Amino acid sequence: MPPTPRAAARPLRLLVLAAALTVVTIAATLLPVGAAQATLPRSLDWIGGKDLYATSALMSQQLGGASTVYLTSGESGGDALAVPPAAAAADAHVLMVRRDSVPSVVAAELRRLNPRTVNVVGSRSVLSDRLWAGVRAILPRATIRRVGTNSGDRVDSALALARDLQRANGQMGPVAFIIGQNGYSDGLATGNVAARLGAPLIPAMGTPSRWAQRVAPVLQEAGQVFFIGSRSVLPEAYMDALYQLIPGDVERIYGSDRYRTNAAVVDRFVYGVGADRVFLIAGNGHGDTIGASVLATELDSIMMLSGRTCHAHGAIAQQVDRLDVRRITGIGTKHWITSDALRFRLCGGGSYAGTTPRFAPGTVMGQPLANATSFTREQQWAGQRYGTFRGIRASGQAGSTLIALPAGARSGVVTLTHAGTDVSVESLDAGLGPHDWPLLDYGDRTRGATGVFLSEFRTDPAPRYLRVEADGAWSLTVRDLRHTPMLRWSGTEDAVGLWGGRDAWARTTVLGDSLSIQQVSFYYWRDYEVLQGSGGQSVTGAIDAGPSLIVIDSDGTGDDSWRLQVTAR
């Protein structure tokens, strides 16, 4: 086994995100588990044009239309590394251009998109006024703006992009990433993860103390700032300088090479993906891959580094295997990343074959369930906070049933229908021990009750199964928390809703035997009781400003109805 990538950290005041777990492959039919098969190799394809400009246009075409475009340099790529989070937050496309001109293939794509806003990334020395004039000739009605300053550096561009990200998301978010001035591949690979999390990506360059003074104002809301890469790429002096100026904490994530660093970042922050596909890019810094970070994010996938013809070790392959996807897409032509690389051929001979998943005897597998394609801002935040995965549907009859959770399902929402009079659903860990509080526990029929299972911290045990105990026919779905509905004011079942509002009062008269409401904050790592009451009582409780989950547990004899009145406080 390759050595585990290291994470050197200072004492933490706030633990920010849960880690990825080692997960198992989920089959697509509701059948008892038979002999498991190795999960690699998989279906292969490429997105690549004759040059990096054509490739960027092809990736843009994969995403359909857009009202916003970011233009980045195909000749000096440093400014472009910080683009993916801002572009993904704005549902924008990324196209590459020359310093002084727009390649014809990119011009054609700009005409197809006809965006309202074009963001030119970098100073005049990176993308000149001649380039600006060329864009104006192609799009005479578009608003064109420079991201950064006319004579600034990559830090100026990254800070401007961070402000774009904040405007698009409505907040900066609790995490930020720092890359080294010469850590191009580390930045390239981290851009996709940052985009998935809605986190800014900023280069460290120049005098550490002066650099820290420039970037600290933007990072005041970050609970934790991650420095990506070894000390030779990203000196300790930058961590020391920033640590003194921000309220959050700093941590370094790195491996013995760029591929292990990439694998460590993915393992830490990407629990699962909604797409049945991952993207591989050559780790030699080939420039046509910047837009792939945005493409992968928009498709709820992940982009990772690869050797051009083979892999020095299995670190990247292990992450692809963990995410349980079937399709591998290379970015660039087969010259830049070969079929052997996409098949995870090892440079020393042989190939990474994949794992053989194991489940408890009698476990059944859920049928795949397509994810939604449109989400509210609060639902997007839920995906960034708790991760995404491909949902499943399962059904069964009376008795006890063990269901394997999908790959990456550390936290999720379960919706249950049951025709009998007694049913319960609980999440279990790999040893079949309780993982969380019971999701749902009913003594009557239910149609559409919802419950959640959560892994708050990366050190928490990960769920692996759901167990259904029922006295009649049942069916359920398991989906990531982006599929949690917004908080409703009334209902007839246990329910979970998202709250994105400000501080409020919640008032209710308990209609059934009892009612309790819990709030789980996304970013402050606490859950607490909003209110609790018994039959006939009028009760009031405080809801804190979101984003958060609101969990409603209503119990009544034959009637679990509830109603809320929510007012500002």
UniProtKB/TrEMBL annotation:
This is Putative cell wall binding repeat 2. It holds the Pfam family CW_binding_2. Transmembrane segments: none annotated. Coiled coil: none annotated. It comes from Agrococcus carbonis. Gene3D superfamilies: 3.40.50.12090. It comes from the Bacteria. InterPro entries: Bact_Sporulation_Assoc, Cell_wall-bd_2.
